[in-house]
Amino acid sequence: PDLSTSIYRKPTHTNLYLKHNSSTPTGTKISVIKSLTRRAYDLCSRQHLDAELDLVYRICLANGFPAHLTTTTMLKVRENILVPPVRPPKTDSSSLTVTLPYHPSLNQPLKKALRRHDVSLKNSSSPNLRCLLTQTKSSPPNNITPNVIYRVSCNECTASYIGQTKRPIEKRISEHEACYRLNNATDDATGNIKFAPALHALNSGHHIGWNSSEILTTTSSNSHLDLVEHAAINVLKPTLNRTDQISNINSLWNPSCNGSHPPSALNQATSRSSLTSLAPPSLPDTTLPDTSYYYL
């Protein structure tokens, strides 16, 4: 039996990858060629390798990659497989890391300027048309949305409290309310305040709007909660928050936090019709270079 292996592509495969003229870091573009070439060497048997490398070359040309760049990158991948390079471990000694969307003309000058101040610049992907016009997943209801910054307000005065939670907000609010019902707003051992809204209700006799708690904003990662909460407290200045318990944020962020305005409510995601699928691009009739030297 034939036990050889090759790359399988679905009949609906479009051969569409990241375009070379897209506004993306150069390293990300080259990684397309590297990953396709590396996959061919890893998965293809010897008798199928030449045909797969030919196809990878033509696919890269169809997506706008220059022939010289494609050939050079494929050869470099082959050399690294034959003689794996010894790379020293990466050490990033920067005291602060900033993540910004990639800009083709500003990225390198900005990276050099920040490096002089011991700041490392990382790039994030900007929203594309597909992200803006399609929605493959439905948004969860507000009451089970994780990683939120919320506000609890008093129904009888202007007092309010801003907090954060990695869990659904309904669980966090239920803990606030339970502390009020059980008269457990402070720690008996240390005397520290455990739940400021509950303590306000117990001391003043006011009613807290537990059921009308407001989600100010959400974050994509729980690692951003401290910074966003710090900004919300600096801007909205809730009276029930203790300033000595504000998250320990690097002072470099203070100008941004003091000038930022978190959304007043969680934006509801709306469903949109998906774009029609694109037809597979036709591969250019290009004379392919001799790929016999690609063999291991």
The order of strands across the largest sheet is: 4-3-5
Overall mean pLDDT:
80
Number of strands: 5
- Radius of gyration, Cα only, in angstroms? 28 Å
List the uncertain runs.
Answer: 260-296
Q: Tell me the strand percentage band.
A: 5-15%
Helix content: 25-40%
Helix-strand sequence? HHHEHEHEEHHEHH
Task: Kindly report how far apart the N and C termini lie.
Answer: 24 Å
Briefly note the structural class of the backbone: alpha+beta
Shape: elongated
Number of continuous helical runs: 9
Largest sheet: 3 strands, antiparallel
Key structural traits:
alpha+beta, 3-stranded antiparallel beta sheet, 296 residues, 9 helices, 5 strands, disordered C terminus, elongated
Describe this structure in words.
- 35% of the residues lie in helices and 10% in strands.
- It has nine helices and five strands.
- The strands form two sheets. Strands 4-3-5 form a three-stranded antiparallel beta sheet, covered by helices on one side.
- The two termini are 24 Å apart.
- Residues 260-296 have low confidence and may be disordered.
Set out the fold topology.
Elements: H1 26-43, H2 46-62, H3 67-82, E1 96-101, H4 107-115, E2 119-124, H5 129-133, E3 148-153, E4 160-165, H6 169-181, H7 196-204, E5 214-218, H8 225-236, H9 254-259
Parallel strand pairs: 1-2
Antiparallel strand pairs: 3-4, 3-5
Helix pairs in contact: 1-2, 1-3, 6-7
In short:
The chain is α+β, with helices and mostly antiparallel strands and 296 residues long. The protein is built from nine helices and five strands; from the N terminus they run αααβαβαββααβαα. Helix content is 35%, strand content 10%.
